[in-house]
Amino acid sequence: MHIQNTNKTVGAVDLLHSLPILNFLLSLLIVFHHGFTRNVGFIDSYNPLDYGVITAIERYFYNFSECAVPIFFFLSAFLFYRTFDGSKEKYISKMKRRFWSLVVPYIIFNTIGYIKAMVFSGRYGGALDYLLSIWNADTMPLWFIRELIFFSILAPVIYRIKRHLWLSVVVSVALIILSTLGLVGYRSFMYWMPVYLMGSSLTENRISRVCDIFERASSRYLMLLLFVIYCLAAWFLPNGSEKGNAIYSFEFTLFRLVSPLAFSYVIICIMKLNIKVKKLMQYSFFVYCMHAPIITLVTLVYSKMIPAFYGSELFQFFVVIFLTYVLCVILAMFLERYLSPVWKILNGKR
Q1: How far apart, in whole angstroms, are the C-alpha atoms of residue 207 and residue 12?
Q2: Is residue 3's pLDDT more than 60?
Q3: 236-240 long-range CB contacts below 8 Å, 24 or more apart?
Q4: What share of the chain is helix, strand, coil (3-state, %, to 5)?
Q5: Which of 90, 126, 133, 290 has CA 20 to 30 A from 245's CA?
Q6: Which backbone phi and psi does 5 adopt, to 5 degrees?
Q7: Taking Cα atoms as reference points, which of 152, 145, 67, 68 lies closest to residue 113?
Q8: Coiled-coil regions in this chain (predicted)?
């Protein structure tokens, strides 16, 4: 990949141009998050030796990849409110677009997940079970899309909240408290509202201002330090133990809330570098939607073909992630080339 340094002033346009690269990195982290081979839950110890080398490595990647979802919500809010003025006409236009880009793919891919559950797990509960599965997204990790649908429906309300800083702060603090107490679930749009409000308030002037601050060496080093601290903090997330424990729950909430801020160093670096967008980076949405059944399939084939050896689980971890992403991209390219109408629907007419 050719990287050429530039000294131009960066802003919202550069962020838009960088989105395929950011989406590629984030979708890869999502695959990492679901590719673990061992139980990576917290065992009341922060000593890596207590987990063993393989589990410790997988646990770190699992924890660090928690950053993908909040950044996705942050960027999604920025994209939505960049062109939304609160008018009825714009709202209707946005809803029509979101029907094809979110609702239709959500139903199709969850149906694929339900079929996967029928084939591999023997699940079949009839029409009602199928509809509940679609609503709960319990066969595919697509709840993110479901919550984006809710955010889109609530756009007029969110638009009015984000226009007043004090109201955004009050709503965010209230929801953070409810989330910490376990009254708002992780897979609820209310849990992600604070991050979403942050993204919705990201205007072109604010992006330019942050980039100007980045030009100062002291600020750049400070942002780098924040990112390094964030990367180290990922290890200390008590994953699997946050339910019913307010302190642990708050740690997770705080980690996710600061994700866009901590990653601002990476985002601005990508914006400032002339990185050519590769074709495989344009299939991030499809990778996100299809990675779960592909992981299941690749893991099944891998376990049948590759004998166990010392460190084989760690080897499997990285091989399955790599093959999953590659196969998703190959499938996407095949659909795009040979079944274009089907591809457009699956990809949300993107």
Answers
A1: 6
A2: no
A3: 236/46, 237/42, 237/63, 237/66, 238/42, 239/40, 239/41, 239/42, 239/59, 239/62, 239/63, 239/66, 240/40, 240/41, 240/42
A4: 75, 0, 25
A5: 133
A6: -75, 140
A7: 145
A8: none
What pLDDT shows up at residue 61?
Answer: 96
Alpha-carbon distance 305 to 108, whole Å?
Answer: 31
Terminal-to-terminal C-alpha distance of the chain:
25
Residue whose token pair is 């009341």: 44
Dmax of the chain from CA atoms?
61
Is 35:317 a contact under the CB 8 Å cutoff?
A: yes
- The stretch 98-111 carries a mean pLDDT of 96
Other C-beta atoms closer than 10 Å to the C-beta of 22 total 20
Element (H, E) at 79: helix 68-82
Distance CA 142, CA 129 (A): 17
Q: What is the pLDDT of residues 267-284, one digit of tens each?
A: 888 888 878 888 889 999
CA 162-166-170 angle, 5° bins: 90
